UniProtKB/TrEMBL annotation:
Pfam families the record matches: DUF2009
Organism superkingdom: Eukaryota
The name this protein goes by in its record: 6573_t:CDS:1
Lineage of source species: Eukaryota, Fungi, Fungi incertae sedis, Mucoromycota, Glomeromycotina
Domain Non-canonical E2 ubiquitin-conjugating enzyme C-terminal: 64-259
InterPro entries associated with the record: E2_Ub-conjug_enz, E2_Ub-conjug_enz_C
Region entry Disordered, spans: 1-23
Organism: Diversispora eburnea
Amino acid sequence: MESVSGGGITPESNEFGTGPELSPTINSSYGDWIEERAKYIPLRLNTDEKKRLGLLEAALNVSGQELLKNKSFEDNEEFYQTIFEIGRRHKIMNPEKMRDAYGKLVYLLMDSIIPDVKDLLQLNLVIPIKTVYSFLEKRDALKILHHQLIPDAVQEIIPNGKNRPQIDQEIRKKERAIELISNHFSNRIISSEEIKQCLYSIGDNHAYLRSNRDCCIKMLKNLTTYFNPSKIESGYSLAIRSGKGGARLSHDHETQFFYA
């Protein structure tokens, strides 16, 4: 079975055993595994989409109503669907962004499905999130994910324990794989830049999961390894009290163990 050298997520070697959704079955190839994962990986925004995102954020920072002002709803259905999908996709990839604006966006989209409002607008503002899988499938290009160089092209370069020459070598190997794949599969339906966008999106997702998911899994592993819910070692109680040390809740040791 193939693996991703130097990457944060591999099909055969996951330090924390994160479950079947992030590891291929024993009979599946790396291509099958990454194709399945691609269904849940948002596509990185391109230059045009970033401009539209700026428009969306500017409008939401003033008022969500500005987006609907002086517009012919039905004639602009695709515009609304696209710009709102871009905002939702951006938020998925960057949870720390659009803190206030995203709340307005969600309320706007929720209101849009109220029967009376929907009858007034005569359009649907919500469409599925654009993923790597949906983008490639639409262009009959899912075979890209099964190329032998895909593990190199989507790996995350992790510097831990490596010297500069090693890191540079891995970067060159990755970029070369991306160039070879994008040039090999580009055609009149999907461009080289669009293929690169997909590959970088997968790499982004690897990095995101490693930095946001793996630390939680490691913490849970340490919790179950070093703590016993029914036994408190001196100086190692997990109990918390509201108002102390920033705690908002009051839990005894056992409750906090299972709460975590």
